[in-house]
Amino acid sequence: MIIETIELNVTISKKDRIALIIIDLQNDFICGNLATKNSSSKQDAVEIIPKINSLLLYSDFFKRIVITKDWHPKNHISFHSNRHIYSSFNGGRFNKIKIEKAKLFDCATLKFPETTTFSSILWPDHCIQNSYGAELHKDLNTNYPHTIIHKGSNPKSDSYSAFWDNNGENDTGLNNL
């Protein structure tokens, strides 16, 4: 991971202060089954934590500090282990038989019983609510005023954005801060 330090001579008044949003620095993404160091990029997310902690030494500079957390229920639709719970849409890439054979990271067209169809990547179980994998990494300094935003907590949709779920139906509350 290449991180450059850039010094800026900028004067910012209190009314112009900005937010710092820290995205998903959770155990499952750092040392768990979705650790970034095991991805094709081979970047280790733990390397960014000292940089973020350095920024947090200036926490008074930020009007608000927000930390997002992937926060999935055990029955989340994007989990590969739950693919048998949901029916596949006949017009999609997978039919009922093939959905059972879908592999991790395949994109499946799924139908939750009372919702419309949509496509989802089938992920390993991760960041399950109140689990070790969903906890923030131990090296992240959280001894400052901050707001936690949970995303992906609706079992029917994923949320790659810190603002909305992937279906655009539920906001995370970040817009209201």
From TrEMBL:
One of its GO terms (molecular function) is hydrolase activity. Keywords: Hydrolase. The keyword Nucleotide-binding does not apply. The keyword Hydrolase applies. It comes from the Eukaryota. Belongs to the isochorismatase family. This is Nicotinamidase (Trinotate prediction). It comes from Henneguya salminicola (Myxosporean). The lineage of its organism: Eukaryota, Metazoa, Cnidaria, Myxozoa, Myxosporea.
